[in-house]
């Protein structure tokens, strides 16, 4: 627990500075680096790691900070290169389909997730800050709510310790947190911010389950150990990168409607 608290005490101020005060390209570089680390841990589940593949993913995410059109062009090119490299490394023809799925999933989940975080920051740090705090709140409320009142397992085969009671606490925590954070910013939505917070909380739980399923299939407890007391980068960012693309779409639609 001491390691967990110490890591959080060091990491949280750095993350907040990156989100609120850092130059945009520095933020993009940090996201790209986190994406490469996350991908390294993900490929560790299957034993297929490669420096060139990680570099492709790094470039795909980092170039999003140079503009979405240029970034998407590099992103698509990098994804195709990555998948092609994965097929070349496959063990025979029978492994081509599995390799294609493995590397495509990395770009869809990790690549799009971190790219969406960069685009959210470009729209305004308040949107990203509200999402991040809400996802953290959902995780924290779900953990303590499940510990205190958890009785009914949510998904026993994937994550036996997660409960429906914890899920309810997590969504409630995200809803409250998002509403409180957005109350400090002059942003108008078509709907009440609480509904967006509710969606963020629900989606983040699914993201957590996706990574839990990957870890269970690989028979590992944590994706890594880079964050002392917290596991790996993937363990900390699973819900965030799963939520970010869907949240970005929701924000764009709502803001577009308001501006009309």
From TrEMBL:
Family, similarity comment: Belongs to the CDS family.
GO terms, molecular function: phosphatidate cytidylyltransferase activity
Species this chain originates from: Desulfurispirillum indicum (strain ATCC BAA-1389 / DSM 22839 / S5)
Pathway where this protein functions: Phospholipid metabolism; CDP-diacylglycerol biosynthesis; CDP-diacylglycerol from sn-glycerol 3-phosphate: step 3/3; Lipid metabolism
Membrane topology designation: Multi-pass membrane protein
Class in the EC hierarchy, top level: transferase
Pfam families xrefs: CTP_transf_1
GO cellular component: plasma membrane
Protein name: Phosphatidate cytidylyltransferase
Enzyme Commission code(s) on record: 2.7.7.41
Keywords: Cell membrane, Lipid biosynthesis, Lipid metabolism, Membrane, Nucleotidyltransferase, Phospholipid biosynthesis, Phospholipid metabolism, Transferase, Transmembrane, Transmembrane helix
PROSITE patterns (alphabetical): PROKAR_LIPOPROTEIN (PS51257)
An annotated GO BP: CDP-diacylglycerol biosynthetic process
Catalytic activity: a 1,2-diacyl-sn-glycero-3-phosphate + CTP + H(+) = a CDP-1,2-diacyl-sn-glycerol + diphosphate
Location within or outside the cell: Cell membrane
TM segment ranges: 50-83, 103-121, 127-145, 166-185, 191-210, 240-258
């Amino acid at each position: 627990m001491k390691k967990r608290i110490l890591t959080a005490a060091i990491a949280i101020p750095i993350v907040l500075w990156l989100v609120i005060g850092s130059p945009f390209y520095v933020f993009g570089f940090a996201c790209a680096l986190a994406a490469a680390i996350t991908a390294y841990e993900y490929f560790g589940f299957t034993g297929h790691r490669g420096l060139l593949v990680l570099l492709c993913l790094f470039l795909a995410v980092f170039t999003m900070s140079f503009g979405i059109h240029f970034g998407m062009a590099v992103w698509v090119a990098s994804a195709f290169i990555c998948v092609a490299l994965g097929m070349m490394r496959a063990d025979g023809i029978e492994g081509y389909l599995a390799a294609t799925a493995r590397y495509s999933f990395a770009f869809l989940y990790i690549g799009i997730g971190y790219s969406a975080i960069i685009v959210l920051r470009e729209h305004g740090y308040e949107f990203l800050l509200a999402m991040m705090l809400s996802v953290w709140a959902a995780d924290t409320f779900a953990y303590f709510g499940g510990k205190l009142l958890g009785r009914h397992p949510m998904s026993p085969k994937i994550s036996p310790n997660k409960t429906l009671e914890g899920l309810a606490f997590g969504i409630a925590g995200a809803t409250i947190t998002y509403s409180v954070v957005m109350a400090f910013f002059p942003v108008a939505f078509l709907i009440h911010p609480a509904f967006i917070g509710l969606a963020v909380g629900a989606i983040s739980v699914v993201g957590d389950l996706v990574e839990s399923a990957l870890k269970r299939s690989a028979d590992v407890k944590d994706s890594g150990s880079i964050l002392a007391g917290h596991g790996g980068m993937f363990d900390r960012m699973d819900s965030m990168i799963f939520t970010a693309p869907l949240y970005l779409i929701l924000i764009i639609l709502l803001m577009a409607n308001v501006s009309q």
